[in-house]
């Protein structure tokens, strides 16, 4: 939906928009400066800049297009992209290496965008916590695994709701920042000593942290919320075996605040294109 809203915003600013892979979005029908295309050729014979998904792909083979029943293979797409600029998010490294003739911009590597996106991620995480627990956020004991951009913003928002925050990390710098902010901090290698005491555990680390004996020590009433991309940081199968409530929450900004996210995307894209001049 953030791409749908982005297309609408760009159209209002008198850009000519060519659409492919958003067929299920009724909002894009009957627009004066928007052309719904049937295939890649129709798009690429006209468009100078191609804006695609965040993440660009989920399987490494096809482009991520949840609002379409069609599939476009990455190799087919990239082979037609000569002399074009591709702007997308979380683009696999092998695509840069394989298609060196295409200008590729991973918008999620833009630090400003990544930071602003954490606001929606934090708000969405709090929404999940409220809807999937039976206790108030106020006074809840909440553990946050990782204290990067998302962890910092989420902790700030939860702190504003009077939650009791513990930050877990293996990075000394992150633990130092947690102490500066006034949160309890725990070394990752000592997580087993404290993990049974929490109402909510939120993971932001993009590799498996909670598995095996650690999962078995978690209280069955604890909510596990995994915000990390890819496989995340929690072993899903083992969590299910232990009957632990696990929610895997991906792409929160585009889901809960597509208009705000689209506005941020637009400004970032304009800034990127201005720098290219």
What do you see in this structure?
The protein is α/β, with parallel strands linked by helices. The protein has two domains: about 1-110, Rossmann fold; about 120-255, NAD(P)-binding Rossmann-like Domain (Rossmann fold, 3-Layer(aba) Sandwich), CATH 3.40.50.720. About 40% of the residues lie in helices and about 15% in strands. It contains eleven helices and eleven strands. It has helices spanning about 1-10, 40-45, 75-80, 95-100, 110-130, 150-160, 170-180, 215, 235-240, 250-255, 260-275, and strands at about 15-20, 35, 50, 85-90, 105, 140-145, 165-170, 185, 200-205, 225, 245-250. The strands form three sheets. The chain has a six-stranded parallel β-sheet with strand order 8-7-6-9-10-11. Strands 3-4-5 form a three-stranded parallel β-sheet, with no helix packed on it. Strands 1-2 form a two-stranded parallel sheet. α1 (about 1-10) packs across α11, α5 (about 110-130) packs across α6 and α5 runs antiparallel to α11 (about 260-275). The relative contact order is 0.12.
Which descriptors would you attach to this protein?
single chain, 277 residues, alpha/beta, Rossmann fold, 6-stranded parallel beta sheet, 11 helices
Brief synopsis:
By secondary structure, the chain is an alpha/beta fold.
Number of helical segments? Answer: 11
- The top-level CATH class of the largest domain is Alpha Beta
Could you say what the CATH topology of the largest domain is called?
Rossmann fold
Number of strands: 11
Largest sheet: 6 strands, parallel
In the CATH hierarchy, the architecture of the largest domain is 3-Layer(aba) Sandwich
CATH superfamily of the largest domain: NAD(P)-binding Rossmann-like Domain
Mean pLDDT: 92
Biggest sheet: strands side by side, in what order? Answer: 8-7-6-9-10-11
End-to-end CA span = 29 Å
What Rg, in angstroms, do the CA atoms define?
21 Å
**Number of domains as seen in the coordinates:** 2
Can you write the helix and strand succession as a string? HEEHEHEHEHEHEHEEHEHEHH
Q: What structural category do the secondary elements indicate? A: alpha/beta
**Residues in helices, as a percent range:** 25-40%
Q: Uncertain spans, ≥5 residues at pLDDT below 50? A: none
Tell the overall outline. elongated
Strand residues, percent: 15-25%
């Amino acid at each position: 939906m953030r791409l749908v809203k982005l297309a609408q915003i760009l159209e209002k600013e008198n850009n000519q928009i060519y659409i492919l892979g958003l067929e299920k979005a009724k909002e894009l029908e009957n627009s004066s400066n928007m052309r719904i295309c049937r295939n890649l050729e129709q798009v690429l014979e006209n468009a100078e800049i191609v804006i695609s998904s965040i993440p660009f792909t989920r399987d490494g083979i096809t482009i991520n297009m949840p609002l379409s029943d069609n599939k476009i293979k990455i190799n087919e797409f990239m082979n037609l992209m000569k002399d074009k600029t591709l702007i997308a998010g979380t683009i696999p490294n092998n695509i840069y290496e394989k298609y060196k003739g295409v200008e590729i911009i991973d918008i999620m590597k833009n630090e400003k965008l990544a930071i602003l996106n954490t606001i929606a991620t934090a708000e969405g995480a709090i929404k999940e916590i409220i809807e999937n627990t039976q206790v108030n956020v106020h006074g809840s004991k909440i553990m946050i695994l990782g204290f990067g951009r998302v962890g910092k913003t989420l902790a700030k928002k939860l702190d504003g709701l009077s939650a009791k925050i513990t930050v877990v990390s293996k990075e000394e710098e992150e633990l130092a920042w947690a102490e500066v902010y006034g949160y309890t901090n725990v070394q990752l290698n000592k997580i087993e000593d404290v993990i049974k005491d929490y109402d909510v555990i939120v993971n932001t680390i993009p590799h498996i942290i909670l598995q095996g004996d650690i999962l078995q020590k978690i209280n069955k009433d604890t909510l596990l919320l995994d915000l990390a991309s890819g496989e995340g940081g929690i072993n899903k199968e083992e969590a299910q075996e232990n009957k632990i409530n696990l929610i895997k929450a991906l792409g929160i900004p585009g889901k809960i605040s597509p208009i705000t996210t689209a506005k941020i995307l637009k400004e970032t894209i304009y800034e990127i294109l201005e720098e290219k001049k």
